[in-house]
Amino acid sequence: MPDALAPAPAPPLPLRDLRAAAAVAREGSAAGAAQALHLSVSAVTRGVQRVEQQLGLPLFERGARGMACTPAGAVLVARVQRALDELLQAGGDAALPLRVSDGMLHALAAVASSRSEALAARQLGISQPAVHQALRQLEHAARRPLFERSHRGTRLTDAGERLLQRARLALAELRTGHDELAAFRGLAPGRVALGALPMAADVLVPQALSRLFVQQPGLRVTVVDGTYEALLHQLRQGDIDLVVGPLRGDAAAADLQESLLFVDRLQPVLRQGHPALRVPRPPRSLRALLPWPWVGPLPGTPARAAFELAFAQAGLDVPAVQLQANAPAVVRSVLMAGDAVALLSPLQIRAELTSGLLVLPPVPVRGTERSIGITQRRDGLPSTAALTLMQALQAVAHDNRGAAGP
Q1: Angle at CA 107, nearest 5°, toward 239 and 173?
Q2: Are 159 and 281 in the same domain?
Q3: Whether residue 26 sits in one domain with residue 99
Q4: At 293, is the pLDDT very low, low, confident or very high (cuts 50, 70, 90)?
Q5: Of the residues 7, 29, 176, 280, which has the fewest C-beta atoms closer than 10 A?
Q6: Do 65 and 119 have their domain in common?
Q7: Is residue 3 part of a domain?
Q8: Domain holding 20: CATH number?
Q9: CA 211 – CA 206 distance, rounded (Å)
């Protein structure tokens, strides 16, 4: 039960005040920050004071030699500076990070998703004229057209798309900074969002979350499933913090960073009582399983590459695949309902193997190794919550390495 005396979560902080705090940290004084931001010293001082009052935390130690960040201030300022750097990389005018407001960025994201100022206004809980004004101000700050308006709605120009991606990353940095200050205020340790590919969603992620909730009972976690491409899009937009599942290795994009958890191996899987198991002896080669209908992974995935390599290594043509699917639940159901054969990870069917519903015939296969791990943005800075989750994933992976096949 939540503690009724625990401090309430602080509301989001205005970007203009956060800019002032970041400038003070960089320049070492309110006077230096005022000169850098072209503001009065009193305006900078009030901005910093508003942030401190809203958070209930001191961000700076004040002395005769100037102002130095407290530990809480250093955490917040690091995230604010990363947010401003994202806006700087959006292109256009170099002064853009100094001109935009969080209201402009939220209006941009809302219009991009709804393609309508009216719907964006409803989503943000403000008036349509307010949204329209925020967009106009944003275009003026960027000094280039960001939108194309027609009877079909509002769409982003190429410059608008670039700014949108950076704006989402900037807002994500600000949310993360806000969450990371929770520990200084005695609150729950924040939130983390991860994308789970089919391989990871069955065993790895659930077990890691079980550990995580014991270690951090107040942590809020969002698990998103989907295709690799869809999850990468969300990762690049800052909507999720990491993706867990098969790695792409040399084929991974340059803006991504991969870390290995363990090496998985695919093995032939049949239902208990399959006709292939009732012949004088169980099948001992892939060739003996060729006559049966096969379920194969989707094209373009690491599982499909391993599937095709296994037959090539055995000197066989890849069998015709009657069903292509990556969803473990679908593949398991098809196997148990008929005489199909598939190459699956033992981790994906642990419960069915334990209960005897599915079996692994003694068929040696080569070339089915898949690297399972974590994918992040190369230029990302994981939050404390994300780091804790990654540690839980590493611990679970260590425990399950022996179950991934011989």
Answers
A1: 35
A2: no
A3: yes
A4: very high
A5: 280
A6: yes
A7: no
A8: 1.10.10.10
A9: 9
- What is d(CA 259, CA 262) in angstroms, rounded to the nearest whole number? 10
Band of the pLDDT at 6, cuts 50, 70, 90? very low
Does residue 289 form part of some domain? yes
* Separation of alpha carbons 406 and 403, rounded Å: 8
Distance of alpha carbon 146 from alpha carbon 130, whole angstroms: 17
Helices 102-114 and 117-124 pack at an angle, to 10 degrees, of 120
Work out the average pLDDT over 78-104.
Answer: 87
In the numeric block, which tokens belong to residue 320? 């015709």
Cα angle: 165, vertex 166, 168; to 5 degrees: 65
CA distances from 220 to 52, 154, 179, 223 (A): 25, 34, 11, 10
Beta bridge partners of 270: 359
Reported confidence tier of residue 216, pLDDT bands at 50, 70, 90: confident
Residue 102: what residue type? D
Residue 221 pLDDT more than 80? yes
Tokens representing residue 233 in the block: 């899009």
Q: Which domain holds residue 283?
A: 267-367
| Whether 126 and 41 share a structural domain | yes
Alpha carbons 163 and 87: distance in angstroms, whole number: 7
Instruction: Say whether both 319 and 361 belong to one domain.
Output: yes
Mark whether 127 and 29 lie in a shared domain: yes
SS3 124: helix
Percent of the chain with pLDDT over 90: 65
The pLDDT value recorded for residue 401 is: 67
Average pLDDT along the chain: 89
Closest CA to 195 of 253, 235, 249: 235
Domain boundary (180, 211, 245) is at: 180
